[in-house]
Amino acid sequence: MSIGEQTPLDALGEIPENLIVKNYVPQTDLLQYTKLFITHGGMNSTNEALYNGVPLIVIPLSADQPIIAKQHAFQYDNMEEIERHLAFRDYLREHPEICRQYGEIKSQLAKQYPNDSDGYCNGKDDFIKSVEKDAIKWHWSVR
């Protein structure tokens, strides 16, 4: 568990033997070997977990974290939704031209809707749905 620089280790009380607590951990290195990630749901942590295919338990604390949790986290037993998102992610990784197009759309939408996450998400919807069908077919063909 990483606690940052603000919390002294002794403020946590007795730490169970099966828990390692540090002020800093190399999160991106550890996520490659992680089966589950408990996080506050910051954008960097969420993106790093999604990139590594690590399931998240998100406990949003402030700022944009509740929005990020809503957009990127799913109930653990909602396998259809999870598979759909993983298929889309993996398809983009394997199809750089589609990924580039998606990036351009996201950049345009970020400029168009700088303070409107619903507008931004709705703007991506048609592209995602058009790619998603191919992504799911591809996903099941390479599994």
Could you give a quick summary of the protein structure above?
The protein is mainly alpha-helical and 143 residues long. Helix content is 56%, strand content 4%.
Question: How would you sum up this structure, described in words?
Answer:
- 56% of the residues lie in helices and 4% in strands.
- The protein has 143 residues and is mainly alpha-helical.
- A two-stranded parallel ribbon has the order 1-2.
- It has helices at residues 27-30, 43-51, 65-72, 79-94, 96-112, 117-142; strands at residues 37-39, 56-58.
- It is built from six helices and two strands.
Shape: globular
Write the element-wise H/E pattern from the N-terminal end onward.
Answer: HEHEHHHH
**Major beta-sheet overview:** 2 strands, parallel
The parts where pLDDT drops under 50 for at least 5 residues are none
Overall pLDDT, averaged?
A: 89
What's the alpha carbon Rg, rounded to whole Å? 18 Å
The share of residues in extended strands comes to under 5%
The total of beta strands comes to 2
The structure class reads mainly alpha
Our count of helices gives 6
* Terminal CA distance: 33 Å
Q: Give the neighbour order of strands across the main sheet.
A: 1-2
Helix content: 55-70%
